[in-house]
Amino acid sequence: MSENNLIPLSEFPLKVEIAVIGSGPGGAITACLLAEAGRDVLLIEEGADLPLESCEPFSVAEMVQKYRNGGLTAAFGQPKIQYVEGRCVGGGSEINSGLYHRTPPDILAQWSQEFEVDALTESDLIPHFEACEQAVNVCYLPGKAPTASLKLHEGAISLGWQSLEVPRWFRYQELDETAVPKGTRQSMTKTFIPRALKAGCKLLANTRIKTLHQTDQIWSLTGSCKRNNHLQEPIKIQAETVFICCGAIQTPALLRRSGIKNNIGNSLKMHPTVKIIAQFDQEINSLDMGVPVHQVKEFAPRFSFGCSISSPPYLSVGITDYPEYTEEVQKNWQNMGIYYAMITGEGYGTVRNIPFYNDPLVRYKLTSQDLKDLSEALQKLALLLFEVDAKILYPSISNSSPLTHPQDLTKIPAHLPVKQTNLMTVHVFSSCPMGENLQKCAVDSFGKVHGFNNLYIADGSLLCTAPGVNPQGSIMAIARRNVLQFLGKL
Fold it and tell me: How many domains does the chain have?
């Protein structure tokens, strides 16, 4: 891929058969399969076109280069929830942990019944799961797991809880059985986007689409493109068909800016997540640890546990709830890891635009039961970590004391305090749910926006509710299913 993917300004207004807005997993798969079917496709991305290797994974540089607003975005509520969005070619696949799940069958059954989604059983999706898994090389770790990951697994087994290694979309180097295997994340810039470009798809990076409207069966997209001198040049693109794949926040924001609002941006879901930094007497962390691979699913779908990226910058951010202990990270980061408890939750959020602001206002309301579930999940996660001899636990609750003994679990209130609890998530979805239930759904069972011709959505906003697992597997399979339906090949 070229660095800028510049299309000369003389070519605007650009006319294409199909415009795909957003190059994350949904957009990349959609653009790839359309291009491979011989269609004239333009893939549009707001962020920069950067190789996966442009920066160290999970570094400050990556947050600056590839995250929206450097990773500093929040859903407002009591408490507020920090969330992250990728903004680069490849979207979230370039920055996430690479952990892969298929959509649980009971979740698919719920979506099919409540939202009236056609052709969404497990057997319907298996061919799409399998094709995507092959394309991004989903596999298990071919050797030793990181010590921080094994701590979680061992604690769960000791307590009699279900724990599993989660596969990842990675390609591993030659195996050294004495070390944790090193590998390369098989993100969209490593897989579907090169395939799309080889098939003739055009890529336009650094381009933000602000609005779209349809006249005489042609969609007009207006926005701006950042050129070499960083000036924003206004652009216009005309397309017969548009696929919007900007993610669960930006997709409803774009549609609402364009006056398309029916069931759009009213039902945002996420996995609210609370974290604990655990400090041990022995080393569990290293600079090349990468992504821990174990998750505890004993209490799923209500809540699940995992181990997060625990690099020194992430530990430094996490310890800000305990400012008097910041030196502990500097001195003992090798003995520390970040663990999380995520809930599916009952709450929901909204996405709304604010005049004169580029970014939408995101609100999210947690219910009393959500706060209770988060508290129970935090207590059980702390119990697990003490089971494997954690020395000190730092839950993400400001103005509280670290936990040093299992008896301290009683200090965690039954409902987490809304003004002190710091929540985050890396999973957002469900803001434009799919299905034939016109009271709830923004699009039909295959992503076509209700009431509009040749306008589709293909990203995480389609997922009807929180799936309770890392969502990229669901997003990829459903995007593949939907684009094949569009092509008449399902």
Answer: 2
